[in-house]
Amino acid sequence: MNSNQTFRVALRDEGIITSPRWNKGTAFTDEERRQFGITGRLPFRVNSLEDQCARVYDQLKTHESDLRKNAFMQSLKAQNWVLYYAFLSKHLKELMPIIYTPTEADAIAQYSHLFRRSEGLFLTLPHQDSMEEDFLHHVKGRDIHLVVCSDAEAILGIGDQGVGISTAKAAVYTLIGGIDPAKTISVTLDVGTNNEDLLKDPLYVGWPHERVRGEVYDKFIDKFVQLVRKYLPHSLLHFEDFGVTNAQRILELYHDQHAVFNDDVQGTGAVTLAALMTAVGVTKTRLADQRIIVFGAGSAGLGITRQLRDAMVKTDNVKREDANKRFWLIDRFGLLKQSLGDKLRKGLDDFVRADDEEELKAFGKEKEVTLLDVVKAVKPTVLIGCSTAPGTFTEEVIKEMAKHCERPIILPLSNPSRLVEVHPHKANEWTNGKALLATGSPFPPAKMPNGKDYNIAECNNALIYPGLGFGAMLSQSRILTDTMIIAGARRLAALAPALKDPDEALLPDFGDSPAVNLEVAVAVAEQAFDEGNAGVPWGKEEVRKRAEEMRWHPIYGTYVYDPHGEV
Ligand SMILES: NC(=O)c1ccc[n+]([C@@H]2O[C@H](COP(=O)([O-])OP(=O)(O)OC[C@H]3O[C@@H](n4cnc5c(N)ncnc54)[C@H](O)[C@@H]3O)[C@@H](O)[C@H]2O)c1
Ligand SMILES: O=C(O)C[C@H](O)C(=O)O
Ligand SMILES: [Mn+2]
């Protein structure tokens, strides 16, 4: 919605007041109140959006806990989209942690108890026979560009929650990426849960059944993806928080059929690549020179590793096999090495180390090679955590790393905050301020030995996925290629404060994320043109102008009643 834009709206009376897309509350003008038959439904005074934001802020302050604030914001979203997004835009940095990570993790964990009103589409396995009908009820006649879905098996680091997350991720697309909320849908794919607490809870609102796997699961997902392909062929399909056995597999299955994107794999890979591009700029080295430990070889760990490897190959001109050797992946059974045999998950082959490698042979085949062992043996320059295991980057590990490395690059990325592998303030203290740090959740600045603040970059995929998605939608690319993602990451890195001042943050601030993501989107769309993937009838030189035009702004337009207008 842009200012001075006029909309022809077909809803009247209660219909327009209860539609979050059109409702303006006290901001309906006298003329609109008359036309839409709502003069008697509103108190006298006409407020500006500005006044409404001030009122919302006063109301928000009356809620003490972050979880209550999250619930309050959720109900605002259900009432009035423009006000919700305008208010959030004004206080972006303060409120991102309320509507997104880390508070959203608690809101999802308590979803059934906080439940007030459903949002988005719920496709549940026992109702799969009516899936097409249910889907069409929700999308028919709508110009949908973006579908965000989740089966909620691996919500952040808190595991199986049965239902949740896609609505928060979709809201961030609008808030940061500028995607019109009317053009997005969020979908819960409910295939059951293995979370015993939820199964026992009489108030659990999802399908109280053991999580379905195998062929039945695959068919259910396929049915959904084929509906998206059939009815929304030009949409971007975003997968969020699928379990590790499904995330990469589903991505690969549909990669050639539709514009699909897995945020935990690709979004996390992209934002981490950007943080490392900046960090190696600070240390004046190349990405391909790093020795990188990835602790937690799940969806995020493998996504990050592949993205970094591909970037080494493409930007530093090293061979793929050589780039593979820059990584040491560690999971529950220690370092991934050949002798682990069946314990190794599929898809990791490129990064499994040989037991007889020079640095490892002292350990022998039987020993589980721990993080500390690897740090001692390998002398890493980069340590990335995506393990969901809090506190695992111990003082001993961090100090050992710092012994061999002037500026250790340490990225404890697990979310929410309480699952972080090391508190960034501790890592800063244990390295005497030498560590280059970024975390998955927001943390306040650390103190440097000279008393100055060190801003901890928030290396969360939300800093880049809205721009990646917007770039793909803008160029109407049928696929989102790795090179498009690298182009987005490079643009993000180019905007990082640390490039100007090495004592500054490794990534742009979330407060600047809307402007930053516009740049990311432009880079991604331009790359789509270069690769011949753009599906729009205009040329590359128009990308920026089109991006600016396509961005949705939370501003009220003027409404005219028209029985044949929009609903
Ligand atoms: N910052 C971000 O943008 C971002 C993005 C995605 C995921 N994450 C976070 O990363 C974490 C992992 O997410 P995921 O989607 O990859 O989950 P996942 O379940 O796919 O992967 C987690 C991996 O860690 C391993 N692991 C668990 N405990 C371990 C331990 N003690 N030592 C070593 N490995 C261990 C598991 O076996 C698994 O392979 C979560 O906390 C999530 O919030 C952060
Ligand atoms: O949701 C987030 O904050 C980032 C990421 O997608 C995650 O799963 O942790
Ligand atoms: Mn996620």
Automatic annotation (TrEMBL):
One of its GO terms (cellular component) is mitochondrion. Divalent metal cations. Prefers magnesium or manganese. It comes from the Eukaryota. GO terms for molecular function: malate dehydrogenase (decarboxylating) (NAD+) activity; metal ion binding; NAD binding. InterPro entries: Aminoacid_DH-like_N_sf, Malic_enzyme_CS, Malic_N_dom, Malic_N_dom_sf, Malic_NAD-bd, Malic_OxRdtase, NAD(P)-bd_dom_sf. Keywords: Metal-binding, NAD, Oxidoreductase. A divalent metal cation binds at residues 240-241, 264. Residues 265-529 form the Malic enzyme NAD-binding domain. Its cofactor is Mg(2+); Mn(2+). Residues 77-255 form the Malic enzyme N-terminal domain. SUPFAM superfamilies: Aminoacid dehydrogenase-like, N-terminal domain, NAD(P)-binding Rossmann-fold domains. Pfam families: malic, Malic_M. The active site is at 100 (proton donor), 169 (proton acceptor). (S)-malate binds at residues 415, 460. GO terms for biological process: malate metabolic process. NCBIfam families: PRK13529.1 (NF010052). Belongs to the malic enzymes family. This is Malic enzyme.
